[in-house]
Write a structure and sequence with these properties.
Blueprint: H1 2-55, H2 59-67, H3 78-94, E1 97-101, E2 107-110, E3 116-118, H4 127-139, H5 148-152, E4 158-168, E5 174-190, E6 193-205, H6 207-296, H7 306-336, E7 345-348, H8 349-366, E8 370-374, E9 379-384, H9 386-402, E10 409-417, E11 422-429, H10 439-442, H11 463-473, E12 477-483, E13 487-500
Parallel strand pairs: 8-10
Antiparallel strand pairs: 1-2, 1-6, 3-4, 4-5, 5-6, 7-9, 9-13, 10-11, 11-13, 12-13
Helix pairs in contact: 1-3, 1-6, 2-3, 6-7, 7-11, 8-9, 9-11
Length: about 500
């Protein structure tokens, strides 16, 4: 998450730089399209009008200018003087600052001289100004020409942008200005040949437009900077807050992992202990059961006291019950440790279910509970472990009989779904049932539903969880539904291979 936090922040900074770059591009787009392009087009239009109205209408003076290298010699020529007056009047009417160059490059006329000092990029102490000058030179390079006059005498209209200049007035005061100088060649045709007969330089002050765009740019940038800082602060806070939450969650997960490992270790130790103690208890229990059976059979002599005979019977029954509990514990501990092996083979489900019902019938009769079987006519063959499946049936049927009051019923039904190739085995009783919140407890290890109806019944609470594990080990599915006071339905689902007739 720390890397993700830095990536988010770097992405935000990258977005900031990208927007700043777009603001800069927009600035120069506005300068070029709104200011420079319009001004240069206007200057070219003025030059074209000057050429048509003044230059071409004074052919005699223009011819003399071409013939004379020094135009000062023409100051006594009336045609030249009239030409200068017309040029000055034209420039005065257009409110343009301009200069006229003859064919030889000499300046013939200028209506204003500026004492301009360009800011030196390399010597400027203001790094912001220096940076802006570099940007001006880069983005407006098509309007910056170091050989503007010479290129204009070759017939090309050129421009020379002075984005930041220092001007000195008559009082010696300095102030900054921005100019665009346009050098427009005056091209004439003689006998089909085109030649540059002069150049008009038009200087336009663009300081106000330039400053307006700069002011707009600053306002946009400040507004964006405020919004960016606000959002960046929110992102910083959220990433730090998320980092704290994730760190806390990471610590919690680590503690849970440690507790899980500890619980698994303790569970394994408990399972091993149960397995060992079960093995240790089975040996003396087998002896108790075996010797009690010998005494009950009166193999070595008759028992004359009936009370002793009853005691031996109780010892035998208790030993068998305890052995069955120990066997369940041993099986469950093996299943929990994935050490319980099941053998899958073909078995007749109908026969196995009938045998299980017969085994439980004496207990059901003693409890006055009716056993009902609902089997299909055709026998169903499935792949499972006969011993373990019978153990599961007996656990379910015994549980159902134990928790069903007298005059109740326990039904064992088998249904098949030919389309899905599934068989459903259900054990349904009309017993005490349980609530939805008690079902997970009943399916947990050693879990017993603690209510007034069920606590009076004996048991370790291993019947249902052991049966569930046995069914799942054989590839089946176990489902339990119950309603308190109405009874319980346990459904086991297996895939079946084929059906055979009775």
């Amino acid at each position: 998450m720390i890397q993700n936090k830095h990536i988010i922040r770097l992405s935000f900074i990258g977005l900031f730089l990208n927007i700043v770059a777009n603001i800069v591009l927009y600035r120069y787009f506005m300068i070029e399209e709104v200011v420079l392009k319009q001004v240069t087009d206007q200057n070219i239009h003025i030059a074209e009008i000057y050429k048509n109205r003044v230059w071409e209408s004074n052919e005699t003076a223009v011819a003399k200018i071409k013939a004379t290298e020094n135009h000062y010699d023409l100051l006594r020529d009336q045609d030249f003087i009239d030409f200068l007056k017309q040029s000055a009047a034209f420039l005065e009417n257009t409110n343009s600052e301009a200069a006229i160059y003859g064919q030889n490059g000499n300046k013939i006329l200028t209506n204003k001289e500026h004492n301009i000092v360009n800011i030196d990029l390399h010597n400027s102490q203001n790094y912001y100004d220096k940076f802006l000058l570099y940007l001006d030179k880069y983005f407006l390079q098509k309007y910056v020409s170091n050989r503007a006059i010479s290129e204009s005498f070759r017939g090309k209209t050129t421009h020379s942008l002075v984005s930041r200049a220092i001007l000195t007035d008559e009082d010696g005061n300095e102030y900054e200005k921005s100019f665009i100088n346009s050098y427009i060649p005056i091209i004439t045709s003689l006998h089909g040949n085109f030649s540059v007969s002069g150049v008009i330089e038009i200087t336009t002050d663009i300081t106000q437009q330039w400053d307006n765009i700069a002011y707009l740019e600053k306002r946009i940038f400040v507004a964006f900077l405020v919004v960016f800082l606000l959002f960046f602060a929110i992102v910083m806070y959220n990433t730090n807050y998320a980092q704290r939450i994730i760190n806390k969650q990471f610590e919690t997960n680590r503690e849970l992992e440690e507790q899980k490992t500890k619980a698994e270790t303790e569970s394994t130790a408990k399972t091993d202990f149960l397995a060992n103690i079960s093995h240790e208890l089975r040996t003396p229990l087998n002896a108790i059961i075996g010797f009690s059976e010998i005494i009950l059979a009166e193999t070595y002599g008759k028992i004359n006291n009936q009370q002793y005979h009853d005691y031996i019977g109780d010892i035998n029954n208790s030993g068998k019950h305890l052995l069955s509990v120990i066997n369940d514990i041993l099986d469950f501990s093996k299943a929990s440790a994935d050490k319980l092996n099941v053998d899958k083979m073909e078995l007749d489900l109908n026969k196995l279910a009938s045998a299980s019902l017969r085994f439980v019938k004496p207990r059901a009769d003693a409890a006055n509970v009716q056993l009902i079987e609902k089997f299909p006519i055709s026998h169903i063959i499935i792949y499972a472990d006969p011993k373990r499946l019978k153990q599961a049936f007996l656990n379910l049927l015994s549980n159902a009989v134990k928790f069903t009051p007298p005059d109740g019923s326990v039904t064992l039904s088998i249904k098949k779904n030919a389309l899905k190739k599934l068989v459903y085995i259900s054990v349904t009783d009309t017993g005490i049932g349980m609530s939805d919140q008690d079902i997970p407890k009943a399916l947990s290890s050693f879990g017993q539903v603690d209510n007034s109806l069920s606590r009076k019944y004996e048991g370790t609470g291993l019947g249902l969880p052991l049966t569930k594990k046995l069914i799942e080990l054989m590839g089946g599915q176990f489902d339990l539904k119950s309603k308190q006071g109405k009874g319980t339905v346990v459904t086991i689902t297996f895939e079946y291979s084929e059906s055979i007739g009775v």
